[in-house]
Write a structure and sequence with these properties.
The complex is a heterotrimer of chains A (about 270), B (about 325) and C (about 160). With about 270 residues, chain A is of the alpha/beta class. Chain A is built from ten helices and five strands. In chain A, strands 2-1-3-4-5 form a five-stranded mixed sheet, with helices on both faces. The chains are: A alpha/beta (about 270), B alpha+beta (about 325), C alpha/beta (about 160).
């Protein structure tokens, strides 16, 4: 931990960032993000397996951008998100200082996104077996059973949009659900509005989701939302061989095509 | 106030009997790690092991979506229909702080321009609170002027006395009616000191110092410091038992339509967005300041009470782990 | 259900399938009148939300049709659309929509007869399947409660 504190301290001191985003642990053991602006506050930073929140979400925030250069302590999913966001041209190399702790416990500071790309590919997290199992289980149900399952789950959505807010890939300044001319999605949280919203959300994240599972973690209603995007990532991988968060260059399944893409379902 | 006792092993019978009268019983049930109010079917589904439910009982009076009216156009003849609310509900297992919140909510909706729908729902619902035997780090009712012994806003208040019986405080006429309907279940008793049975929630800040202090820090950086972690979802407002903001949506086609009232949250950028594109609460710190100011200043000005009951739901639900307790302490110390 | 007449919405591109449908008309080829055609500049322009809106407003079946591969008026719109449909179909399947009610096809400006055949076959198929109400009934369902989820889980 001392090494991490020193690293943050030196980054803030030498001016390579004026704000450093990391995790902290409260006296009660709660993990929350912390925003360090002074070198002497560096010892607030904490890291452990319990640091789940995807901090990449903060780099889109106006009040964070106002600080200018930002440093960020990233777990592996945050790294994947940052790489994907970079590939989508949403951040510049020179405005972000990224630090992580590798599996051997050593601090790694990345000079650029090329290094992040190499690191992420060397330390790729395996797909969550539990999620894969649940996707598989649902896929094996009958169509009607699947419909009942999702109708039940999604109908309880209260539309707090925590899934959208917590997702680093949901960075649009105006979301489709906020458009009212035309009103694509009914905003009330009744069954129709909820299913429209979650289908739209999943489609817009298909092949872009880095599977950090923040959407499911933050859901006040405990809806397993991540299964939708996990399923679509799986489809994108099987059909087009594309995976999100592993390349610094844009490789988004729906922004490109191959002449010989599957066509057996088209008459 | 009247006082009764109920044998704890008579509780299933109590629920079954209410159900037989055609009323819906809402009781705590577990989904994953969280507890929600769900329709009672059988007693073994009820979960008693919870500090606080994930959602507050406010949705019983103020649902997240509700129909205000529907209309029809039959070739130029218009007809409007308002909903008729007849379903009678008994809510069991809310906490005393929720009662205080319901009292505030009713004050808000029923005082100046009474809201008919909310009034009907209130008349049709009996709220039974179950006094807290335990608390967690996010509970702070005692800091905002309430406590696990509070009975305000509840119709009946149950306290598990640890001796195989519930001590029942009959707070309102509605509560009395429910008790009177099942005379064989409830026995008369005198007022009992229940405090020993209840959770001792520590006081985290001094409300009388805090309330006058809050408007004085309005222009400071404290809001930005506190809200940098805020990601701008509406979870805190939606789980809050006193948040009463709503949005009205029309869903219609040329033949028919519905006007709906839906929850809204001041944490959303769109909440204050003007048609011109200007947004007076441009960044998240402005929105966070509004939330805290509303709870501890604006509602004091407008309704003579703070509108936070210390249930701690916003802290438990926050994706970024923000804690209003810590924020209020930092205001107090500022 | 013997007198059930399916409502089919066809989302077609201007340059190939719409012209193909036109050709079917000028060639006086008779086909089922159950289809309502919506014309788009290109299949690449057909947003997945439009398909949902069609189902919501009472469509029993959907046809999405455009230019054959390598024939797109805008070079590659149909290739992009094809990918979108693969992903969207996978999502709809996973959520439990009846994706058998959506027909994807390539119909060129010269294929009036193929267009008529696609429409007829789709109408026959949907007539057998009956009305599709899973999605259009949603707006009658109102607000879902946690009770329904919990009861479904324990069932």
């Amino acid at each position: 931990m001392q090494e991490l504190h020193n690293k943050i301290k030196s980054i803030l001191e030498n001016g390579s960032a004026s704000l450093f985003i990391a995790y902290q642990k409260s006296r009660e053991g709660k993990i929350t993000p912390t925003f360090i602006t002074k070198p002497e506050q560096s010892q607030k930073a904490y890291f452990g397996d319990d640091c789940k929140q995807n901090l990449a979400v903060y780099i889109h925030k106006q009040e964070v951008k106002n600080f200018g250069k930002v440093g960020i302590f990233a777990n592996i999913y945050t790294l994947k998100s940052l790489l994907q966001i970079y590939a989508e041209n949403q951040i510049r190399d020179d405005y972000l200082k990224v630090v992580t702790i590798n599996p051997n416990g050593a601090i790694v500071e990345f000079a650029n996104f090329m290094e992040i790309e190499n690191y992420v590919n060397e330390n790729k997290p395996a797909p969550n077996p539990e999620d894969m199992e649940r996707v598989e289980k649902l896929s094996n149900l009958s169509r009607e059973e699947r419909w009942d399952y999702w109708l039940n789950e999604l109908s309880t959505c209260i539309k707090c949009y925590a899934c959208r807010a917590a997702c680093p890939m949901c960075y649009c300044t105006k979301c489709t659900v906020d458009c009212n001319q035309p009103q694509w999605i009914s905003t009330p949280s009744h069954s129709l509005g909820n299913i429209e919203w979650h289908i739209m959300r999943a489609m817009h994240l298909a092949g872009r989701c880095v599977e950090c599972n923040e959407c499911a973690r933050v859901c006040p209603m405990d809806i397993p939302l991540n299964l939708l995007t996990v399923k679509l990532n799986d489809t994108a991988n099987i059909e087009f061989g594309q995976q999100a968060g592993l390349k610094g260059e844009l490789d988004y399944a729906l922004s490109t095509f191959k002449v010989d893409d599957k066509e057996n379902f088209i008459r | 106030m009247n006082y009764k006792t109920l044998n704890t092993n008579k509780l299933p019978e109590f629920f079954e009997k209410i159900k037989k009268t055609g009323k819906t019983v809402l009781a705590p049930r577990k989904k994953g790690n969280k507890t929600f109010f769900a329709t009672f079917d059988s007693f073994d589904q009820i979960n008693f092991d919870y500090v606080q439910t994930a959602l507050s009982p406010k949705s019983v009076l103020f649902p997240r979506v509700e129909e205000l009216f529907t209309y029809k156009n039959d070739d130029g003849t218009y007809s409007v229909k308002e909903p008729e609310l007849k379903n009678e509900v008994v809510v069991f297992g809310m906490r005393p702080c929720d009662g205080v919140a319901l009292d505030y909510l009713c004050d808000f909706f029923l005082n100046e321009n009474p809201d008919k729908l909310l009034q009907d729902r209130k008349n049709n619902t009996t709220f039974i609170s179950l006094a807290c035997k335990s608390f967690d780090n996010d509970c702070f009712c005692t800091s905002v002027g309430s406590s696990p012994a509070e009975t305000l806003g509840s119709d009946l208040c149950f306290t598990d006395m640890g001796n195989g019986s519930y001590y029942v405080e009959v707070v309102t006429d509605k509560g009395q009616k429910l008790v009177d309907a099942f005379p064989d279940l409830f026995a008369d008793t005198k007022e009992i000191n229940k405090v020993e049975q209840l959770a001792q929630v520590p006081v985290r800040f001094e409300l009388k110092n805090l309330v006058p202090k809050i408007p004085t820090v309005f222009e400071t950086n404290i809001w930005l410091d506190q809200s940098l972690a805020c990601i701008g979802c509406g979870a805190c407002a939606y789980v809050c038992p006193t948040c009463s903001c709503f949005d009205v949506q029309d869903e219609c086609n040329p033949k028919a339509g519905t006007r709906l009232r839906c929850w809204d949250s001041c944490a959303f950028g769109q909440f204050t967005l003007h048609a011109s594109g200007h947004n007076p609460r441009e960044v998240q710190s402005n929105r966070w300041r509004n939330r805290v100011m509303h709870k501890f200043n604006y509602s004091v000005q407008n309704m003579n009470t703070i509108s936070c009951v210390g249930c701690g739901r916003c802290i438990r639900v926050c994706p970024a782990g923000m804690s209003i307790i810590e924020h209020l302490i930092s205001v107090e110390e500022a | 259900m013997s007198n059930f007449e399916p409502k089919i919405i066809a989302f077609v591109c201007n340059w190939c399938t719409y012209a193909g449908a036109d050709l079917a008309g000028t060639s006086r080829i008779k086909y089922a009148p159950n289809v309502r055609i919506v014309r788009f500049p290109c299949t690449g322009r057909i947003d997945f939300m439009l398909l949902l809106k069609a189902l919501q407003t009472g469509a029993d079946g959907i046809i999405v049709s455009g230019c054959h591969p390598a024939d797109c008026h805008y070079t590659a719109g149909n290739y992009h659309a094809r990918r979108r449909w693969i992903i969207f179909k996978s999502l709809l399947d996973f959520v439990g929509f009846d994706t058998g009610r959506i027909t994807f096809s390539w119909v060129s400006a010269a294929e009036g007869a193929k267009w008529a055949q696609i429409v007829n076959e789709t109408v026959d198929k949907i007539r057998d399947l009956g009305p599709y109400t899973d999605y259009s009934n949603l707006n009658k369902l109102g607000v879902g409660t946690i009770t329904e989820v919990l009861n479904a889980r324990t069932a």
